Amino acid sequence: MTNVLLVYPVPSIASPQKSPPLSILHVGEALRQQGVYHIRYFDERYDPEPDMEWPDVVGVSSMTGYQLKGAIKYLKLAKAHGKRTILGGIHVTMQPAQCLKEDYVDSIVLGPGEWAMVAAINGARIAQEPLSGRHVSPVGYETLEHFQRSAKTGDTILMSSRGCPFRCGFCYTQKFFDRKWESVGLDQWKRDVLTLKSLAMVRKLEHGDDWIGKWSRAKEVIIFLWDNGIEYRPSIRAHQITDEVAREMAGMGIKHVSIGMETGNDRLLELTQKDITKDDQVQCAISLAKYGIHPLYYWIVGFPTETKAEIEETLDQADLMNAIHAGKVTQNFYAYTALPGTPLFELVDQSKLPQTMQGWSEYSLHQTTNELASNLYHIGGLHFHRGKGDKTDRNFPGWRRAFIAPFEWLAAVRWRMRFFGWFGLEKRAIEKLLEFVT
């Protein structure tokens, strides 16, 4: 028997979300089915430091950005103990050549990792298996505690599909899933939901699918969850939201929905191949507001070739969304992250991008060389996350809200004045507060 330790490093210091570490749970349960591996999971957010004498193999999953800090730490620790090391996840799939240069990485797994992981354990330098329909449930006796943890904060995710057929030019799914989409077996998925409800006390599911599918399929998922007392916030594309769809969602009990708007500029919507229009965005907002559904809108700033005027247009569109919803809306602003293998990557100045895993650990959805985009992550977040249950409320609950209140006020002033520079001191203070309260 081979002992395999699967590691999930802390993904972010800025987000209070505590979703289960699905990237290692799917892999672990697939390996367990082989009958020749002992599996242990290590989630850095909760677990004590792992015993590195136990495993023969250490597998680490990581996204681009902050999570790489922990990935590097545990890969190096494993090598210091003479263990075989394997790196999987989004970052290595986008940057395989760079990752293989690191002397603490023995093998890499590209794309979905359940079955490719076996080849990596057996010595393959590069292991990859495309979507194949061989989906493995992450729900098992050994994984229940991870879902119990997420249930306490309402952050449980259980994928009902994988991949996405759309062509958004900035998205990791272009390379990770090769623009393919597959539904998992919904019968098994439904059994897993009921298991998690019964044994892990899951009462709420967050969206996790990159695309839940056509509205007819989305309805099947939503109706099943609500019929079984599971609250759910689906993620839908803006052009799918019509008056009829919003009415049906409200009738099903949906109170929240997540939607990627990305940009409020026509040229950039076309450049990014988002395949929606500004009119789609407005119609989506009007329909959701009409039926009292509270949305979370995602925006991206810092696209290649984006001008200051085009950024202003996106901010104005966000203000319009806020007005349509009478303030009952949450909006996130992320910085464009240049991911190799995506269409927009060719438009980026390569000389400004990191060349090592350590360099990429400082480069993420809110830490980039684009100062304005990085600053907007915090300023926009504080400005549009002031409602109950929003990220600011979750990061600073109760009396702790007093710590961040002055920065919320400053963010609101900055937003109104469109003044996003000279933010370094405020940003460091906010990040220190986040470290303190979390």
CATH topology name of the largest domain, in short, is pyruvate-formate lyase- activating enzyme
Mean pLDDT: 91
Structural class: alpha/beta
Mind telling me the CATH superfamily name of the largest domain?
A: tm_1862 like domain
Unreliable stretches (pLDDT < 50, length at least 5) are none
- Helical amount among residues, as a percent range? 40-55%
Q: What proportion of the residues form beta strands (DSSP E)?
A: 5-15%
* Count of β-strands: 13
Structure commentary:
With 438 residues, this protein is an alpha/beta fold. It folds into two domains: 127 residues, Rossmann fold; 293 residues, tm_1862 like domain (pyruvate-formate lyase- activating enzyme). The protein is 42% helix and 15% strand. The chain contains 18 helices and 13 strands. Helix 9 links the parallel strand 9 and strand 10. Helix 12 runs parallel beside helix 13. The model has no long low-confidence stretch (mean pLDDT 91).
What's a concise summary of this model?
With 438 residues, this protein is α/β, with parallel strands linked by helices.
Chain-wise SSE layout:
Blueprint: E1 2-8, H1 22-34, E2 37-43, E3 57-61, H2 67-80, E4 84-88, H3 90-94, H4 96-100, E5 107-110, H5 116-121, E6 126-128, H6 144-153, E7 161-163, H7 173-176, E8 181-183, H8 186-199, E9 204-206, H9 215-227, E10 231-233, H10 243-252, E11 256-262, H11 266-271, H12 278-290, E12 294-301, H13 308-324, E13 330-335, H14 357-360, H15 371-384, H16 391-395, H17 401-417, H18 424-437
Parallel strand pairs: 1-2, 1-3, 3-4, 4-5, 5-6, 9-10, 11-12, 12-13
Antiparallel strand pairs: 7-8
